[in-house]
Write a structure and sequence with these properties.
This protein is mostly helical and about 140 residues long. It is built from 6 helices and no strands. The protein has helices at about 1-30, 60-75, 75-90, 95-110, 115-120, 130-140. Helix 3 runs antiparallel to helix 4 (about 95-110). The protein is rod-shaped and about 100 Å long.
């Protein structure tokens, strides 16, 4: 009797986890997640609609976008001050400083007009802000 019980116990110990894993997998694949149509109700491991990881953005692009938003919310002088501080804190941004300042100059003309935008001009990044204002005012 003990030998038979031991064999049954060993068999269950080996078979039961396999059965539980398979039944759990089958249950998860047939759960209605969000869609109403039958195709959207099945979750498959080989789905072709896999999310693609977003590309990470370069630090100078993030800084440019942040400063452009700040220019819209506050004024170009504040954005230029923060640009200068960022370049001083992170010298690796220095090579992008001119392009960021030009973008700020163009955005300032679009938001404030050429005369008022020029009044915010400073010698940040070799006067690239003024260059951007000029180019935008000339329409190039």
């Amino acid at each position: 009797m003990t030998h038979t019980a031991r064999r049954i116990g060993r068999t269950l110990a080996l078979v039961l986890p396999v059965v539980l894993v398979l039944s759990g997998t089958l249950a998860v694949t047939s759960v209605p997640w969000a869609g109403r149509n039958s195709e959207a109700r099945m979750l498959t491991a080989s789905s072709e609609n896999v999310s693609i990881r977003a590309k990470s953005r370069a630090p100078h692009e993030v800084l440019r976008d942040r400063l452009l938003a700040e220019l819209q919310e506050k004024d170009p002088g504040t954005a230029l001050t923060h640009l200068q501080r960022e370049v001083e804190e992170r010298p690796s941004l220095a090579r992008h400083c001119m392009s960021i300042a030009k973008a700020l100059g163009r955005a300032a003309v679009a938001h404030y007009g050429p005369t008022r935008a020029q009044s915010y001009s400073r010698p940040v990044c070799d006067t690239s802000f003024a260059s951007g204002v000029y180019q935008q005012a000339q329409g190039s």
